[in-house]
Amino acid sequence: MGRRPSVSKLSVMQVVFVADFFSDQILGGAESNDSVLISYLESNNFNVVKKHSAHCTLQALQAYKDEFFIISNFVGLSEASKKYISENCNYIIYEHDHKYVATRDPSKFKNFDIPSEQVVNYNFYNKAKKVIVLSQICKDVIEKNLNLNNVISIGTSLWFKDKFSFLRSSIPNQKSKKLGIINSANTIKGTQQAVNYCTQNNIDYELIQAAKPEDFLLEIAKYEQILFMPQVLETFCRVIAEAKVLNCKILTTPKLIGFFSEEKLVELNGENLLDQLVKRTDDACRLFKNIIDQSKEKITVILNCYRRPEYLAEQIQAIKNQSVQPTEIWVWVNNHKDNESYDFDALDVDRVFNNSYNWKYYGRFAAAMLAKTKYVAFFDDDTIPGNKWFENCISCMQEEEGIMGGAGVILKNKKYQGHDRFGWSSKNVNKVKVDLVGHAWFFKKDWLKYVWMEDPLTWDNGEDIHFAYTAQKHGNIPSFCPPHPPGHPELHSSLKGYKYGVDDKASSAVRNHNVFYQERDEIVAHSIKNGWDIISVKKE
After folding, report:
1. How far is CA 198 from the centre of its chain?
2. Are residues 362 and 412 in the same domain?
C-alpha cells in the first residue's frame, strides 16, 4: 500500500504586474488601487515583479511567459506585446477606465452603446482569464458591447487598512461648511463645470484642496455637500465613496459614477458604508489571489465520443466557460456509424483522436497518458458541467486529494447493484467519500499509471470500478464526490444527465440490462477479492 496523500498546498508564485505608472510616480486612483493589491499579494508570499507597460518588449515578455500577469493600465503596451500576452500568457486585466473603447469613455455614446468601429483591444480582453472591473455599471457596459463572459465586478476601489482607520477616526460629529467643489487639475473631474454651475445659479461654494491626502479628507469632512460633475464614466470614484463615509451629501450625475451602480452601497453613509468597503476590499484581494492560485492548476480535458456527437459542441462550450480554464481540450472518438459523418475538424479543440476502431471505455485512459498537465478531466458524452465544476474539484483537492467525480457510489453488500449514489442526481450538500465515481472524473494525471498495473476483469465494462480499485490499492488514493448543493447548478458536474443520459444509446440500454449489471457485480467482487477496501466493509 502506498502513502496516503497529504492535503495539497499551493506553492509560492511569481506575478508580473504591468502598469503605465506605479504609486511612487503618480498617486491617482488606478495607482492607489494597484498599490493595495500589490501589497496584499506580497504579504501572501507572492513575488510581484512590477513592469512598466512601455518597457514590456517582446524580449522582456518572453522571459516571463510562464508567470501569471496582472495587466493594469496598459496604454504603453505595443500591439505586438498585447498579441504576445494574449497568445502565450495567463493574465487578468484589472480595468481602471475603459481601454476597450477608442474614446476611453463609453458615456460619449447614447445609453453607452459603443459603435462597433469604436471598440478596440477586443481580443486582449476576450483572451484574459478574467477582466476585473470596479463596479456593476462597468461590468454591464463592457459585457453589452464586447459580449464577454469573463468579466467580474468587485464593486469597490481598494484601500489600505491604515486609510480605513484614518477615515473612521475622521467621521465628523457636525459640519462647519455648506458646499464644496473638489479642485482638481484633471479636466475629466469637472471642476470648471461645477464652478460654472454654481456661478450661473448664484450658489455659494468653496474649492477643496490640500497638499496631503489626509489633509484633503479632513477638509472634505467639513462640508455638508460636495458638488461633483465628472466628464466621463467614473469606474467607481473613490473620493465620492470617501466623502460619503465622511457623511457628505453628494450632488452629481449618478449614472456617470460607478459607485452609484452598487445598490447595496448607495444608501449607506458613515461607518456603515466604511464597514462595507472594508469587507469588499478584503473580498476583492482574496478574489485576485484565488484566480492566480487556480491558474497553476493545469488541466487537460478529454471528451469521449461514440454515439452522441450532437452534444460535443455544447460540452466544449461548457468547458470553455469554466471559471478555471483548461489548458487543452481533447476529443477521443471511438469508431461508430453514428459519428462517421460528423465534422470533427470544425470543433474548437486542441486534439482529436479519430479512431478506426472502438476502443470502448479504456481508450481515453490511454490517450490521457500523453497529457502534460497536472490534472486530467474526463466527461462521459451525456455530461454537461456547470461553469464552476473544475473550481469545485480543485477546492476539494485542496482539502484532501483523491479522484473527484460527478456520480459517486457507495457499495452495499459487496455488489454494485443496490448501491447508494451521490452527485448530480442526489445533490449532496457536502463532499462525500465514496467507493468509486463516474460520469465526470477529475484527478491527477500521475494516478493513471495505477489503471495499467493490473488488467481489468473485462475490457467491456467497469472502467470506473477498475480505476477506483487500482488507485486505492496501489496508490492509496481515495475517491470523492464533490458538493452538488441544490440551488447552485454552477458547481454541478452534470446539468442535463436526466435528459441526455437516458436515451437508447446508453451503455446499459444497448446491451442486455441484466447482463450489464451482473458484469458490474462481478467486477466489484473481483476487485474486493484482490484487495479493494470498500467503505461498507471497513465499517463492519
Report:
1. 46
2. yes
The CB density around residue 59, as the number of other CB atoms within 10 Å, is 7
CA contacts within 13 A on the Cβ side of 350 = 12
> Residues 6 or more apart from 130 whose CB is under 8 A from it?
92, 93, 150, 151, 152, 291
Shared-domain flag, residues 170 and 145: no
| Residue pLDDT, tens place only, 240-262 | 999 999 999 999 999 999 999 99
The CATH code of the domain that includes 193 is 3.40.1010
Cell representation of residue 6: 497529504
The DSSP secondary-structure symbol of 234 reads B
Model confidence pLDDT, tens digit, residues 292-337: 987 777 899 999 998 888 889 999 999 999 888 899 999 999 988 9
CATH number for position 41 = 3.40.50.2000
Query: Do 431 and 304 lie in a common domain?
Result: yes
The C-alpha cell that represents 287 in the structure block: 478574489
CB-based contact 432:479 (threshold 8 Å): no
Grid cell, residue 534, equals 470498500
Strand partners, 377: 301, 442
If asked whether residues 311 and 255 sit together in one domain, one would say no
Name the CA radius of gyration of the chain, rounded. Answer: 28
Burial class (CB in 10 A: 0-12, 13-18, 19+), 373: middle
Q: What is the mean pLDDT of each run of 10 residues along the chain (540 residues)?
A: 35 86 92 98 96 96 93 97 93 97 97 98 94 98 93 97 98 97 95 97 96 95 98 97 98 97 96 98 95 85 90 93 90 90 90 92 94 94 94 90 97 95 94 97 97 96 97 98 95 90 55 84 97 82
Is the CB of residue 244 less than 8 Å from the CB of residue 268? yes
Alpha carbon distance 49, 258 (integer Å): 30
Do 264 and 315 lie in one domain? The reply is no
Which residues have C-beta within 8 Å of that of residue 504, sequence separation ≥ 6? 510
Cell of 178: 455648506
115 vs 424: CA distance, rounded Å: 43
**CA separation (Å) from 265 to 241, 384, 419?**
9, 37, 50
Residue 136 lies in domain: 14-153
Looking at the fold, whether 205 and 74 belong to one and the same domain comes out as no
Counted residue by residue, the chain has a size of 540
Task: Determine the 3-state secondary structure of 220 from DSSP.
Answer: helix
- Kindly give, in sequence order, each residue whose CB lies less than 8 Å from that of residue 80, ignoring residues fewer than 6 positions away: 58
Q: Pick from 153, 188, 212: which residue ends a domain?
A: 153
The angle formed by the CA atoms of residues 60, 41 and 5, to the nearest 5 degrees, is: 100
CA distance 117 to 79: 17
288, part of any domain: no
Task: Say whether both 303 and 387 belong to one domain.
Answer: yes
- Report residue 94: phi and psi, to 5°: -100, 95
The closest of 448, 442, 439, 444 to 467, measured between CA atoms, is 448
pTM: 0.67
User: Would you say residue 111 lies in a domain?
Assistant: yes
Number of domains in the chain: 3
